[in-house]
Amino acid sequence: MKIQIINGPNLNLLGVREPGVYGNESFENYLVRLKEHYKEVDIHYYQSNVEGELINKLHETGFSFDGIILNGGGYTHTSVAISDAIAAIKTPVIEVHISNIYAREEYRHVSITGKNCKGILTGFGMDGYRLAIEHLIHPL
Fold first, then answer.
1. pTM of the model
2. Is 22 an annotated catalytic residue?
């Protein structure tokens, strides 16, 4: 099984950015633990702060991978283009947010991208990525 994790803007700063909201661990450290736990899964990781690069990665992996886990960061609430890219591919996408977007500013309560995703996990910290992998491996 091949899973692509895609993180959007500012998520390269995990571990140093707003630790009260996002925690103290970098995504790179968390990714090592994920790969150790899921040795049978070929996990790929990509991060970009650029909307078009995220769309390109969705197009690149959206027809050949078994699942995509997307944390679009702020683009979740603004990007029709990323939402359209998710709708255009065949690989199922699970949207993940480290913080609970519904417990934050009102403008974060709307996910433009979520309507084209298989599901959304929000507020479980980094563990949301693991929960998404579990669903992709063992869907009910």
1. 0.94
2. yes
